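Standup notes
- DV: blocked on the single-chain target, sequence here:
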Amino acid sequence: MTAPILRPDVVKRGPPFGDLVAAGSGTAMASVCVVGLLQVQHLAGGIWAAVAVSIAGLLCWRLARIFVRLMHVVPSGAGLFAYVARGLGRRAGLVLVLPYIAMAMLLVGFEALVVGTLLAQLVAVPVPIGGLVFLLASWAICQAGIRIGYRAQAVATWALYAGLLGLSLLGVMQLALRGGLAERLLTAPPAVLPFIAAVGQSLFCSWASSC
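- DV (later): unblocked, structure below
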């Protein structure tokens, strides 16, 4: 049976591009990716860390184009499982996708732990209670509908982007004023294996952000 193809008018009514970008990032960007970027900087310091992140970004861009095509050919809410199962069968699809699901669940738990810890500092509630409130609030927004869910996550994520970008620029400016910016950027090229590891870490950060 041929898979249905999404009509152009249906695709055009989808969420705005900015909302989709924000929905592809989330609490993971702050809770996991900041630590990951520090690891990238440790593996490939200076400008080489930016090169490693750029290479990972190009790979993710290519992969995203493949997923766009798959979404048109196999439109399904099952996502990755539907794509793999369509090509390799349901059993193989389940086996291959289970590690991804397990990692996603661990990441959700880590996000809830981070949010619970922050709430404990602000309103003096136990960390498990704060994490549970975060999960219930996320579930309630999803139940309210995709439009409000996308919009709420978009606003929160872009605010997070702005805050992290502002802090990063402030740190760079302070380092430049002290005269140590060139020394930090123009470091010696890293060895091959650490650089590959830095690219891999950047790929993981991209995956974590999109969960």
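- Follow-up: Residues 25-210 form one domain.
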